[in-house]
Design brief:
CATH architecture of the largest domain in chain D: Sandwich
Strand order of the largest sheet of chain D: 3-2-1-5-8
Chains: A mainly alpha, B mainly alpha, C mainly alpha, D alpha+beta
Number of strands of chain B: 0
Oligomer: heterotetramer
CATH class of chain B: Mainly Alpha
Strand content of chain B: under 5%
Structural class of chain D: alpha+beta
Distance between the termini of chain B: 63 Å
Chain lengths: 538, 222, 107, 330
């Protein structure tokens, strides 16, 4: 490294003080604002998860009252889904990387980007108020007529919180779509885009097309509680199943909003980990779009036992089977990429391999739920809880942590401690499997979801799961520790510590505010290893 | 268009864009995507309407019979005229005729206000006839409960539409100020075009609301 | 549009002659009158079909001419058609439940 | 050693479990295949030199088509198999022992046709098809018996029917599987499957106030339904005798089969589907009759269907219908 006369000017030291952060329009700083607020909600949701698992260690409900338990699992759901899983990868990694990956100076609408962070914070405050003022006990699904007629808890503030944070997702999605369409550097054609940009594009499509419907649905729930319109109230003639149609129209594509960005991160990690192009680039890219489109046709499989007509259930079942195919294609292509690659065992790549394995189990257990006959038995039991945690925790959070470790040198200019990171990755992997695999078994045995007390014969499996949860809890604390530690004491990272291909590795770490000295001209394909020499800017 | 040098530091060109052309297309695409979210936002309500009209056709026809059809018809005409004047405003901005632009913006805002006035009158008369669920709702006992769903939908859909109209008037006020101040020029008229897209969208929502809410009970022999 | 053409001859934003606006305005007013008149005849299911067809026609005119989609890029067309397609998904798949709920099962 | 697999106590349980094992096998196969390949490739092709680069392989069309086509075939096989099992589940056999179930916030109320009422416990005979007609008094509940592999949401304002054929006597868990409020986890019960002889003995213990249909008949008179619904067709309401199960032309021109749901809707919301030739003058009974009373009235109307045609006899305007209606199994 050349001796540095004055510290290099980059986006972190390009202005100090609260105002330079709270009024920034730099997509990289906004990404860090999101990183902080998203982590806060992750640990709120995580704390509730630990309480839930502690409660379930005994068949009798003796740690908390049933009222409190209902509020715990509801707020665990709301905090994790709406305030962590949906915004995390797009708003933190997407915000930071997409402009750099396509060679732009910033997103298309920087002010809109800052506005979407403030909207996220306002939504968060609404939900925090609801938690402090007594909590909400309707489950994150707000099924009517319980949420509109019967519940006496803070449903309206939470509903407003979700309504507001939905717009943060819409604005981020809108920003990404316009940026990817209109602001690619010269030479950056669609098929030279990194796969993370493809999956972020597909995620933004779902965000933009799905979130408005849940916004109006949540508004209807709040309106029904306040004005008693009677849309979902059977005594007035309303049909509670209509709420489920409106709710799941968004909430199933929402699970693809949560997993698609993680898939994008994994494509990057596998390509960099094996230093070779991703196998079947175009198939993986179009698989993202296929998931985004098919994801909107399948919501009925959440309602097979909810009084849906037999023929409608059949239609949703066959469509639900089709949506599994693009995910399978992605898994096969990742695995095929490793063939004859130069496979590294660095921490981000460990997270990627863990992701592929766990996502395969999560995805295949989805087939059990698309098959109506088996779904009738397993829906609303712990089999479902295990299925979606394998996708959300085994998939999205593994992808998020992998991405955070992989791009940490680029974000902070520092290298984290590799040994500690590997240990944390293994603890998380083991803790995760010990927590959620027993839940498949106890689920098929028939233990229902959201139960505060359960028959004694389920206790052994629940104790195993609670033990796993404590390991997983510890596992999640470690990365926060050594990543923050690395900010001060980590070794200085060069511009390309992993020797990877990608525009983000051609600029300095951390990058300057305008990302590149001059707008790069792209002449090489997506993952053309070995990295072209001239990109190795010292 | 402007020569290259002038374009690069045209006051309206944001730093992250390379040209006014790129900025215009980005802004237009951004507004269209926002309109997609609005289509689906109203879509949830149209689904609720469709489902309950399928389940309770007679109650919906009886309830729709109580709405003031001439008020709805005039409102439709008012909104279509405001769409015309909005389109002419965009045309005036493109051709640099600032006087005409300001005139058409004012006429559009007046028409929007007239629409809200007629709507307020309708709401008042429905309140008088005691058709407002939650406040003083009363109706023919045979369809009492199912008609309540119709009236709830009516107030929610037209209320949400009116709210979007009010936001539209706010946008038009800002556009009027920019037009008078001269920021709108034939090179930089994107804000006017985008506001026009939003206004036309609000008109299209009413084009569907009017027949679905007002016209289903007219011939009924109820 | 990958190559941003800084300052080059940007393709001229299409200026629609005002004559077209007035023609479209006339058709829209006519359609409004038509849909109101039809509503007063008892045509059974045809009433709804007629009302919706006229509304779709009016909306299409506004989108194509007033909102310049007719002269816009293919991307704008894709966005417009996309929104209609997604609205159709929401309505159609939900109605598959409500319309077939009364059917008796067999087998 | 805790149980790791649920009991199989109904005919459907075996068919569901076979499909479950098939899916389990597929999941195990692909999970082990992918995990194995990852570990093998990670070890076999591990990075040996710091700047070693992988071979430049872009893709292989044949492979892509293979792992799109094969999974497609597999999932379609699963779809056909599962839908056939589901159709068998959805269609209740014709001859069933009917029992009414009312879900209420945090308890299950059962109502046998012969008048017995049970709370959180249901006695059924082994070896017979049992059909439960369920509704809820407040929010959505869910009738879930893991041992029978049966689950269905119990929805307020609607009748949802569930059927099962118990094969093994014993006591089986009943759970509420749809979140319904504070004591959702307390809303459990037991299904007691007994030998037919024991079941008859238990049933003959009998209920003091007679069969459900007779309760319905009394209610029919108390609410003065018989002033309009008279067997001699002079009343202002349609004749109910022999009506249940038949398809009925409506004022709006459609026809509807008279089932439990239609009777219930016509009581709570008379103007919704008016019978052809009659005026919509019947007042609504919404809020005047409870769910149990509704069940009794529905059962009474059902019992009229099998009643031999009454000779028209003059009756005082609001006297009770003549004769005791003996419940006859549908």
């Amino acid at each position: 490294m050349a001796t540095l006369l004055s510290p290099p000017r980059h986006y972190l030291n390009d202005g100090y003080g609260i105002k330079s952060w709270l009024l920034t329009r730099d997509h990289k700083r906004i990404a860090l604002l999101y990183l902080a607020s998203v982590t806060v909600f992750f640990f709120i949701g995580g704390a509730m998860a630990v309480l839930i698992r502690l409660e379930l260690a005994t068949p009798v409900g003796d740690l908390v009252s049933d009222e409190t338990y209902n509020k715990l699992f509801t707020m665990h759901g709301v905090a994790m889904i709406f305030f962590f899983l949906i915004p995390a990868i797009p708003s933190v990694l997407g915000n930071f990387l997409i402009p750099i990956m396509i060679g732009a100076k910033d997103l298309a609408f920087p002010r809109l980007n800052l506005l979407s962070w403030y909207i996220y914070v306002v939504g968060g405050l609404f939900s925090l108020y609801a938690m402090i003022a007594g909590g909400v006990d309707t489950g994150w699904t707000f099924y009517t007529p319980f949420s509109t007629v019967s519940s006496t808890t803070q449903v309206v503030p939470t509903a407003l919180g979700i309504f507001v944070v939905g717009f943060s997702g819409i604005l981020t999605g809108l920003n990404f779509i316009v940026t990817i369409h209109r602001m690619r550097a010269p030479g950056m054609t669609w098929f030279r885009l990194p796969l993370f940009v493809w999956s972020s594009y597909a995620t933004s499509l779902i965000n933009v097309l799905g979130t408005p419907v849940v916004a109006i649905t949540i508004l209807l729930v709040a309106a029904e509680r306040v004005l008693h319109f009677g849309f979902f109230d059977p005594s007035v003639g309303g049909d509670p199943v209509l709420f489920q149609h409106l709710f799941w129209f968004y909430s199933h594509p929402a699970v693809y909003i949560m997993i698609l960005p993680a898939m994008g991160v994994i494509s990057e990690l596998v390509a960099a980990g094996c230093r070779k192009p991703v196998f079947g680039y175009t198939f993986v890219a179009f698989a993202s779009l296929a998931i985004a489109v098919l994801g909107f046709l399948v919501w009925g499989h959440h309602m097979f036992v909810a009084g849906e007509s037999v023929y409608s259930a059949m239609i949703f079942s066959v469509l639900s089977f089709l949506v599994a195919i693009p995910s399978a294609v992605k898994v096969f292509n990742w695995t095929a990429t490793m063939y004859k690659g130069s496979v590294s065992w660095e921490t981000p790549m460990l997270y990627a391999y863990g992701f592929i394995g766990l996502f395969t189990i999560g995805g295949l257990t989805g087939l059990f739920l698309a098959a109506i006959a088996v779904d009738v038995h397993v829906t609303d039991t712990y089999f479902i809880v295990a299925h979606f945690h394998y996708i959300m925790v085994g998939g999205t959070i593994m992808g998020y942590l992998g991405g955070l470790h992989y791009w940490w040198p680029k974000i902070s200019g520092r290298l984290y401690h590799e040994g500690l990171a590997k240990i944390a990755a293994w603890i998380i992997f083991i803790g995760f499997n010990l927590t959620f695999f027993p839940q498949f078994v106890v689920g098929y045995l028939g233990m229902p979801r959201r139960y505060h007390a359960y028959p004694p014969e389920f206790q052994v499996l629940n104790v195993l799961s609670s033990a796993g949860a404590s390991i997983l809890g510890v596992g999640y604390l470690l990365p926060m520790a050594y990543l923050i530690w690395s900010l001060r004491y980590g070794r200085i990272a060069g511009s390309n510590p992993w020797g990877a291909v990608g525009l983000e590795w051609t600029t300095t770490s951390p990058p300057p505010t305008e990302n590149f000295a001059q707008t790069p001209v792209v002449t090489w394909d997506a993952y053309e290893y070995p990295a072209p020499v001239e990109t190795h800017v010292a | 268009m402007l020569p290259d040098a002038v374009e690069h530091h045209h006051p309206a060109l944001a730093h992250q864009f390379d040209s006014l052309e790129q900025q215009k297309e980005a802004a237009t695409l951004g507004m269209w995507i926002f309109l997609v979210t609005e289509v689906l936002f109203f879509g949830g309500l149209f689904l609720t309407y469709t489902t309950y009209r399928h389940l309770y056709p007679d109650a919906f026809a009886a309830a729709s019979h109580e709405l003031i059809v001439w008020a709805g018809t005039i409102n439709t005409a008012v909104l279509i005229t405001s769409s015309l004047t909005m389109a002419l405003a965009v045309h005036a901005a493109q051709t640099g005729n600032r006087r005409l632009l300001v005139l058409f913006l004012i006429v559009t805002m007046i028409l929007g206000t007239v629409f809200l006035g007629i709507k307020a009158f309708e709401y008042y008369s429905e309140w008088e006839e005691r058709h407002v669920p939650g406040l003083n709702y009363a109706f023919d006992p045979r369809y009492y409960r199912h008609a309540q769903i119709f009236f709830s939908l009516y107030f929610l859909m037209t209320g949400l539409h009116a709210l979007h109209m009010i936001i539209g008037l706010g946008i038009m006020a800002v556009m009027l100020r920019w037009s008078i101040r001269g920021t709108i020029t034939p090179e930089y008229f994107t804000p006017i075009e985008i506001s026009g897209l939003y206004w036309h969208f609000v008109d299209i929502v009413w084009i569907f609301l009017f027949p679905l809410l007002y016209l289903i009970g007219r011939h009924a022999h109820v | 549009m990958s190559e941003a053409n800084p300052g080059g001859a940007a393709h001229p934003a299409h200026v629609v002659p005002t004559r077209i606006y007035y023609v479209i305005f006339g058709i829209l007013m006519l359609c409004t009158y038509l849909t109101v008149q039809i509503a007063f005849f008892d045509l059974g299911i045809l009433n709804t079909v007629a009302a919706l067809t006229i509304a779709v026609l009016k909306a299409a005119l506004v989108v194509l001419f007033f909102m310049h989609v007719k002269y816009s890029t293919r991307l704008t067309w894709a966005v417009v058609i996309g929104s209609i397609f997604w609205l159709a998904i929401l309505l159609a798949l939900t109605l598959t439940d409500y319309t077939t709920r009364a059917w008796q099962t067999f087998g | 050693m805790p149980p790791l697999f649920p009991e199989r106590a109904s005919t459907m349980a075996y068919r569901v479990d076979n499909l479950y094992f098939f899916l389990l096998a597929i999941t195990a196969f692909f999970a082990l295949l992918i995990a194995g390949l990852i570990v093998f490739f990670a070890v076999r092709y591990r990075r040996r030199a710091p700047d070693a680069v992988g071979e430049r392989i872009h893709g292989n069309l044949v492979l892509e088509l293979a792992w799109t086509g094969i999974p497609l075939v597999i999932v379609m096989v699963i779809f056909v198999w599962s839908t056939s099992v589901y159709f068998a589940m959805a269609k209740a056999p014709d001859e069933t022992l009917n029992i009414y179930v009312v879900g209420k916030q945090w308890m299950w109320k059962f109502q046998h046709l012969d008048g017995q009422r049970e709370i959180n416990e249901l006695h059924v005979p082994v070896g017979r098809d049992v059909r439960l007609i369920t509704t809820s008094e407040d929010v959505i509940h869910d009738f879930f018996v893991p041992a029978f592999r049966v689950k269905a949401d119990v929805i307020p304002g609607r009748y949802v029917s569930i059927w099962f054929h118990p094969t093994k006597p014993g006591r089986y868990h009943l759970f509420c599987a749809e979140y319904c409020g504070t004591r959702h986890s307390g809303m459990t019960g037991e299904i007691v499957v007994m030998d037919p002889s024991e079941f008859q003995a238990w049933m003959s213990g009998g209920a003091p106030e007679g069969s459900l249909a007779s309760t319905g008949a009394k209610l029919f008179a108390d609410l003065a339904c018989n002033t309009c619904h008279r067997p001699d067709a002079q009343g202002r309401g349609p004749v109910l005798d022999g009506l249940f199960g038949r398809s009925q032309a409506l004022q709006s021109g459609e026809t509807v089969t008279v089932d439990e749901a239609y009777v219930r809707e016509s009581i709570l919301n008379p103007a919704a589907k008016v019978v052809a030739g009659f005026q919509p003058i019947m007042p609504t009974f919404q809020g005047l009759v409870s769910e149990e009373q509704l069940l009794a009235l529905v059962e009474y109307v059902k019992s009229l269907a099998t009643q031999p045609q009454q000779p028209p006899t003059a009756r005082p305007a609001n006297g009770p219908a003549p004769g005791e209606n003996t419940p006859v199994k549908k």
